Automatic annotation (TrEMBL):
The keyword Transmembrane helix applies. This is Stage II sporulation protein E (SpoIIE). GO terms for molecular function: phosphatase activity. Pfam families: SpoIIE, SpoIIE_N. Residues 496-700 form the PPM-type phosphatase domain.
C-alpha cells in the first residue's frame, strides 16, 4: 500500500514538474517570437510588454526569450535599448512578485511603459534625435501600455472556470489580440504577391463569422487586420478592410456559406481597387484564395468546427439522463426513510432499556436524583427522536428534488452559456448556471455564486437575461447560504400579488407573531404567519423561529411538508419548557391563481371571491408539541381581483360575525383594509386582555 501511495505521489510530482516546464517553455518561445515583431517606424515593444505581464516566475523565461530574440535581429542601438528595457522590466516584475501586487494590472503597465520610456529617452538624448523621435517614442509608450494590458488580461483569462467558447467577449478580445501579436513578424512574408498569413487570416475570419457569430468575427478581423497592417504605412488599411468586410459578411451569414464568402470577397474587391494596383492585387488574390479554402473545406472539418462553436442546445432531460437522476434521488429518499425507521427502532429499544435500569436503581436514589435522571432520559429520548425526524426530512427533500427534476422538460444550455458570458462582462464568474423550462413552458434561471451581491438583482441584469432567453423575468431573488448564494430569476407570471399587512404587540415592543412574505423562484408568492405561544419576548422567539426557519427551508428548495418536520424538531429541542408555534401559510401560484393553504394549529383564513366571503378553517396541531405533526391542507383558485386574508388568533377570537361585519365595511385598498381590521380589533379589545394581533391582506392583480 505504501509503495502504491509513494508511486502515485511521484507521478503527481512528475506531472506538476512537466506542467510547469511546459508553461515556462511557452513563455520563453512567446518572448522570442514577440521580440521579432515590429510596428511602423521599427517599434518593437512586444517582448517588453510580455515580460511585464507574465505571471509568477514566467517573467524570467519571457525576458530570456525576448533578449535572445532582440539579439538575433541585430546588434544595434535600438535592439540594445530593448534588451535593457526587458531587463529593467524583469527587475520590476520581480519587485511586483515580492510585494504580491500582481493582481493589479496597473503595476505591470507601469513597469513596462517606464522601461520603454526611460530607455527611449536615454537613446534619443545620446543620438541627439529630433522632436519626431520623441513623438514616435510617445506612440510606442502608449502601444506598450495597451499591449501589456491585453497580454495581462489574456494570460489571466478565466479559462479554468469557463470554456474558451463561453468566455465573455471582452476576454475573447484580449486573448485574440495577444495571440495575434505572435504573427507580427510574418506580416510581410510573401510568395510572389501572395501573403500566406493573410490567406490564413481570411479563412479564420470567415469561419468565426459564419460559425460563431458576427461579434467574434469582428474582433478577430480587427485584431488580425491591425497586426497584419501595423508593420508598414501601406498596409494600415488592412484593419479597416478586414473589419468592414467582416461586417458585410456577417449580414449575409444567415443566407449560406456562399453568401458569407461572397459578401466578404465583394467588399475586399472594393478595397483592393481603391488602394491601387500592387497592394490591391495582393489583397484581392489573398481574399480569393482564403474564400475558396473556406467554401471548399471538407464536411468532416466543418462538422468539427460547428460542434466546437455550438456552446449548447436545448437538452431535453427525458430518457436516460433524467430518469436515471430521478431514480437515484428517489432511491436515496427511500434509503433515508429506511434509516429513519432503523434509528427510531433503536431509539425505542435504548429508551426501554434505560427506563428499566432507572427503575431498577430506584431504591438507591433519592427522589430528586430519580426525577433528574428521568428528565435527562426523556430529553435524550427527544434528541434521538429529532435525529430520526431529520432523516425523514432529508428523505422528503430528496423526494421533492426528484419531483422537480421529473417535471423539468428542457435544460436550455444555449441560454445558460450566453448568461455566463453576460455575467463575465461584469467580471462575475458563477459556479453554475441552470436555465430550466418546466412542463408548463415556464422558465427559471438559477445562478450559483461563490459570494453574494445585492446589485445582481438589478433591473438592468434582469432585462439582459430576458433578452437572452426571449422572455420577461421578474426581479431576481438572492438566497444566501454559508459560503454561496443562489440568484434566481423566474419568468414574469400572469398575476402579481398586492399585499398589505399590519401588526400589534399586546405586551412590550416584541410581538409574538411573525409575518413573512416571500417569493420562490417558480412564480409563487408565499404568505406566512407564525404565532408563538403566549405574549412577549418568549412568544416572539418561538414565532420568529418558526416563520424564519420555514421561509429559509422553502427558499432552499424544501417542500412544505419536509420543512414542517424540521421546524417541529427544532422547536421540540429548543428548551426544556413547552415551546410551540402555529404556522399559517398561503402559497399562491401567480401563473394560474391556484392557492394552497397549509395550517399547523392556525386559525381560520378568509377568501373574498367575486365579492363573497368564504371561511377556510382546518383542524391541526401547532409545531413543537408532538412528533409527526402534519399540515392540514386545502386548495382554492383565485381569479383576478380575488383576495385572501390571514390572521392570528388575536383577531379571529373576536368571532366570525364580528369579522364578517368588519370585512364588509373595510376600505378597498389592501393596506388600508389591513390597517382598518387591526384598528377595529384593537378598539374591540380596548378594555379587555388583548393578545398579539397580525393580519396579511393580499389581492390578486394583473401583472
Amino acid at each position: 500500500m505504501e509503495v502504491k501511495i509513494k508511486k502515485r505521489l511521484e507521478e503527481n510530482m512528475k506531472s506538476e514538474v512537466l506542467k510547469r516546464a511546459g508553461i515556462f517553455a511557452g513563455y520563453f518561445f512567446a518572448g522570442l517570437i514577440t521580440s521579432f515583431g515590429s510596428a511602423i517606424g521599427g517599434l518593437k515593444p512586444f517582448g517588453v510588454a510580455l515580460t511585464a505581464s507574465a505571471r509568477k516566475k514566467g517573467y524570467i523565461f519571457s525576458a530570456l526569450g525576448a533578449v535572445i530574440g532582440y539579439l538575433l535581429t541585430g546588434f544595434n542601438a535600438q535592439n540594445i535599448r530593448y534588451m535593457c528595457a526587458v531587463i529593467l522590466t524583469a527587475l520590476g516584475a520581480f519587485l511586483i512578485e515580492l510585494l504580491d501586487a500582481y493582481h493589479n494590472p496597473l503595476f505591470s503597465i507601469i513597469i513596462g511603459t517606464v522601461s520603454i520610456l526611460s530607455t527611449g529617452i536615454f537613446v534619443n538624448i545620446r543620438l541627439s534625435s529630433s522632436s519626431d523621435a520623441y513623438f514616435l517614442l510617445l506612440a510606442e509608450t502608449m502601444l506598450s501600455a495597451g499591449v501589456t494590458y491585453c497580454y495581462y488580461k489574456g494570460i489571466n483569462a478565466n479559462l479554468r472556470q469557463m470554456r474558451f467558447k463561453a468566455l465573455p467577449i471582452s476576454e475573447l478580445a484580449y486573448i485574440i489580440i495577444s495571440v495575434s501579436t505572435l504573427f507580427l513578424s510574418l506580416g510581410n512574408v510573401a510568395i510572389w504577391r501572395l501573403y500566406p498569413i493573410r490567406i490564413i487570416a481570411v479563412v479564420l475570419v470567415l469561419t468565426a463569422t459564419y460559425y460563431a457569430g458576427e461579434r467574434l468575427g469582428m474582433i478577430l478581423a480587427l485584431s488580425l487586420g491591425f497586426v497584419l497592417g501595423v508593420y508598414s504605412k501601406e498596409a494600415l488599411f488592412l484593419c479597416g478592410a478586414f473589419g468592414f468586410s467582416t461586417l458585410v459578411a456577417g449580414l449575409f451569414s444567415s443566407a449560406s456559406i456562399f453568401g458569407t464568402a461572397g459578401a466578404f470577397l465583394a467588399s475586399i474587391t472594393f478595397f483592393s481597387i481603391a488602394t491601387g494596383e500592387e497592394v490591391g492585387l495582393s489583397l484581392f488574390l489573398d481574399g480569393i484564395i482564403g474564400s475558396l479554402i473556406f467554401v471548399l473545406m471538407p464536411t468532416g472539418i466543418t462538422d468539427k468546427i460547428e460542434k466546437f462553436f455550438d456552446i449548447g442546445t436545448d437538452l431535453p432531460p427525458d430518457g436516460t439522463l433524467r430518469q436515471n437522476l430521478v431514480l437515484k434521488l428517489r432511491f436515496a429518499s427511500n434509503a433515508m426513510s429506511a434509516i429513519s425507521d432503523s434509528v427510531d427502532e433503536v431509539r425505542e429499544r435504548i429508551n426501554d432499556v434505560t427506563r428499566r435500569q432507572n427503575e431498577a436503581m430506584r431504591d438507591t436514589m433519592t427522589d430528586t436524583e430519580y426525577i433528574t435522571r428521568e428528565i435527562i432520559l426523556e430529553k435524550t429520548n427527544q434528541i434521538r427522536m429529532v435525529a430520526s425526524d431529520q432523516f425523514i426530512s432529508i428523505s422528503g427533500m430528496l423526494n421533492d428534488l426528484a419531483k422537480e427534476f421529473d417535471e423539468a422538460e428542457i435544460f436550455d444550455g444555449n441560454a445558460s452559456n450566453k448568461i455566463r458570458r453576460l455575467l463575465g462582462e461584469y467580471e462575475i464568474y458563477p459556479t453554475n448556471i441552470s436555465a430550466i423550462v418546466d412542463k408548463y413552458g415556464r422558465m427559471r434561471v438559477e445562478i450559483l455564486l461563490s459570494s453574494s451581491s445585492a446589485e445582481l438583482t438589478g433591473i438592468e441584469l434582469k432585462n439582459e437575461i430576458g433578452k437572452i432567453c426571449n422572455r420577461y423575468f421578474d426581479t431576481g431573488r438572492i438566497t444566501n447560504f454559508k459560503n454561496e448564494s443562489m440568484l434566481s430569476f423566474s419568468e414574469k407570471p400572469n398575476y402579481s400579488l398586492e399585499v398589505g399587512f399590519a401588526q400589534f404587540s399586546a405586551e412590550g415592543e416584541l410581538c409574538g407573531d411573525t409575518v413573512k412574505i416571500i417569493n420562490d423562484s417558480k412564480g409563487h408568492s408565499i404568505l406566512i404567519i407564525s404565532d408563538g405561544m403566549g405574549k412577549g419576548s418568549r412568544a416572539a422567539l418561538d414565532g420568529a423561529m418558526g416563520a424564519g426557519l420555514l421561509s429559509k427551508l422553502i427558499n432552499s428548495g424544501f417542500g412544505f411538508d419536509s420543512a414542517l418536520k424540521i421546524v417541529n424538531s427544532a422547536l421540540l429541542v429548543k428548551s426544556n419548557d413547552e415551546s410551540l408555534a402555529t404556522l399559517d401559510i398561503a402559497n399562491i401560484d401567480l401563473f394560474t391563481g391556484k392557492c394552497e393553504l397549509f395550517k399547523a394549529g392556525a386559525p381560520a383564513s378568509y377568501i373574498i371571491k367575486d365579492g363573497r366571503l368564504t371561511k377556510c378553517e382546518l383542524t391541526s396541531m401547532p409545531a413543537g408539541i408532538l412528533r409527526g405533526i402534519e399540515f392540514a391542507k386545502r386548495t382554492a383558485v383565485l381569479s383576478l381581483g380575488d383576495s385572501i386574508i390571514l390572521m392570528s388568533d388575536g383577531i379571529t377570537d373576536l368571532g366570525e360575525r364580528w369579522l364578517r361585519d368588519t370585512i364588509a365595511t373595510m376600505p378597498s385598498g389592501v393596506q388600508d383594509g389591513a390597517d382598518y381590521i387591526l384598528n377595529r380589533a384593537k378598539e374591540e379589545m380596548k378594555d379587555k386582555k388583548a393578545d398579539d394581533m397580525s393580519i396579511i391582506f393580499a389581492r390578486l392583480e394583473r401583472n
